[in-house]
Specification:
Blueprint lengths: L1 H15 L1 E9 L1 H4 L8 E9 L13 E5 L4 E7 H9 L3 H6 L5 E4 L1 H11 L5 H17 L5 E3 H20 L7 H4 L5 H14 L7 E3 L2 H18 L10 H14 L1
Parallel strand pairs: 2-4
Antiparallel strand pairs: 1-2, 1-5, 3-4, 6-7
Helix pairs in contact: 5-11, 6-7, 6-10, 7-10
Length: 251
């Protein structure tokens, strides 16, 4: 599959006359809890030719290629990526720390990741992750929940808890996030991760009441703590310089 992904990236780069700076695997494979039938979610950051940014019409800010049920590719233009980083959007924060990388310009990718730490807005990140966890939990039925959906509740909840307690960008992988759980719950979740690898993603499981109680109490505590955190806004100077320098270096 890696060869197929790299071939598809090369084809779309040629077809759209773009330079791919970074391409990674997102979703459950990158998060550390894949299932038997997990698909491949490839995400990438690209730049157009220098002249495209000087034209009257704006170049495409995103490209999406649903290849088939097993693979899809979605990418953002560097300018859009930087705009989202300025807004402290969690998605580029996650992409740039993913463990499965298919292609990258390492110096540029490293600089992008370093920039992210300067644009971390704890309130915005916590609110975002808490909303995802709450929505996923509301769509479940009591203690019965699809094994995939459990992690769609738990991972963003732990990300929100990480941002709140450590005041830094949450890690993408599940393993460091599990350190926020009591030891007995952490072991349970690790057992469920091992179980998930042998199942399809829609397989229902029964949540231990202790896990459900931890989820519900954490949501209440995090929501209450949000009130004491100020919203932050950032200037674009550093991002502007990085954008110009990157375009000039690739010209």
């Amino acid at each position: 599959m890696q060869n197929r992904i790299k071939q598809k990236l090369a084809e779309l780069a040629q077809q759209h006359n773009i330079h791919i700076l970074y391409a990674c695997e997102s979703g459950s494979r990158a998060w550390g809890f894949p299932s038997q039938n997990s698909d491949y979610d490839v995400r990438f950051i690209y730049v157009h030719r220098f002249e495209k940014y000087l034209a009257i019409d704006n170049p495409a800010s995103h490209l999406t290629f649903p290849i088939d049920d097993e693979l899809d590719l979605h990418g953002w233009d560097l300018k859009k990526t930087l705009q989202l980083i300025r807004k402290s959007n969690t998605t580029p924060f996650e992409w740039l720390q993913l463990p499965i990388i298919y292609q990258q310009n390492a110096p540029i990718a490293n600089q992008l990741w370093q920039l992210c730490s300067n644009f971390f807005n704890a309130r915005g990140n916590i609110y975002h992750y808490l909303g995802i966890a709450k929505s996923a939990l509301q769509s479940s039925e009591g203690q019965q929940i699809g094994i995939k959906k459990l992690f769609y509740v738990l991972r963003p909840l732990l990300c929100a808890k990480w941002c709140l307690e450590k005041q830094q960008i949450a890690p993408m992988a599940i393993t460091p996030l599990l350190t926020l759980l009591p030891d007995d719950l952490s072991q349970q979740i690790n057992d469920i991760i091992a179980l998930k690898a042998t199942m399809t993603e829609s397989t229902p499981i029964t949540i231990d009441p202790k896990i459900l109680l931890f989820i519900e109490q954490s949501m209440i505590e995090i929501k209450e703590s949000l009130q004491a955190i100020d919203e932050q806004h950032f200037k674009a100077d550093k991002l502007d310089r990085f954008f110009i320098q990157t375009l000039m270096s690739l010209k």
